[in-house]
Amino acid sequence: MRTLVKNEDLKLRYKKGNGAWTYHIVIPDTADIEGKWGDLKVSGTIDNCEINELNLAPRKDDDKNISVNKEIRETIGKTGGDMVRVTLFLQTKDRLIDESELRESFEVAGLIKEFEDLTTSEVKNMLKEVNAQTSEQKRVDKINEFISKLEKK
What we know:
The chain is an alpha+beta fold. It folds into two domains: 2-90, Elongation Factor Tu (Ef-tu), domain 3, CATH 2.40.30; 99-152, no CATH class. The chain contains five helices and seven strands; from the N terminus they run E-E-E-E-E-E-H-E-H-H-H-H. It has helices at residues 70-76, 99-108, 112-116, 120-131, 136-152; strands at residues 2-11, 13-14, 23-26, 41-46, 49-55, 65-67, 83-90. The strands form two sheets. The chain has a four-stranded antiparallel sheet with strand order 1-7-4-5, with helices on one face. It has a three-stranded antiparallel sheet with strand order 2-3-6, with no helix packed on it.
């Protein structure tokens, strides 16, 4: 995890009619972080209110921000214009599985022939499903699920 801010006082901003982003916090020194919507997740605290896996909004060539929903605002007792104490960590994705590692898993399971009989499209879809999992353990579980399916054929 990468520390974005640690115990910094930041302004809870209010921008009328801005949907989910009506109340938000701009996170300083984050313009260099690359990623698309949904890929950038942060966890930490806002005024000692724990937050988990909030989206960090990508903004081209500008510092990123997070929206602060009603539940969080009520918990911390703050509104637009108030200062809040923020600690945030950028969640880092685990390493993705590539085709050679997938192949090796099927080889170890004694199913290399069955794996090699799969179409290119089937292997790509399998990799896509494996790498869509949110943790390394879930990726392993998904590979084992595919191994079990091939064993039953």
